[in-house]
Amino acid sequence: PTECFLSQPEEKQETTTVKAKRRKKKKISDILQKSAPKPGVPADLQNLLSQHFAGNRSVIEIEELKLSDSCFLPANDLTHSFSSYLKEICPKWAKLRRNHKEKKSVVMLVICSSALRSLELIKSMTTFKGDCRVLKLFAKHIKIKEQMNMLEKGVFHIGVGTPGRVKALVEQDGLCLSSTKYMILDWNWRDQKLRRMMDIPEV
Question: Which helix (H) or strand (E) segment is 158 a member of?
Fold first, then answer.
């Protein structure tokens, strides 16, 4: 009986130490929660590109991938709404929209991390877009063939979608980027796990 009695508290001790260890494990969301949102700058994208291609490109090839400062527009300083930001960076939108007649392409491409975020941005650009046509470029409930058919048959001015679906459309020749004038990255928005689009490894 004494032995049995002694073995019980030992078991309890083991379980409590395991539980304590589990609690101490830090989640990525805890770390990200502490980092304050700040506007994305051209250097962020440049660093990301060079890190991504560092393993399979030579130094000269990486140098060729570098975009000049003239390629970048001013980033949203976090005081703008999405529509007011678009109006600031694209003051001649009405003219661009009128002149765009090409099928299988868009003038403005907005890339964000999820389908839900895409819908949110489409709603928030109402005052900017006016009567121009917007195409949803994400996988949720929409087949890639449907999107390819829509791009072939009609003229769209703005495309809003996720990196995976945009990449698939470009690779399958469903989306042509030759007439795209603006590409906007939804850099600062965070999902439920507090990850930005650029924190997701697949992206």
Answer: strand 158-161
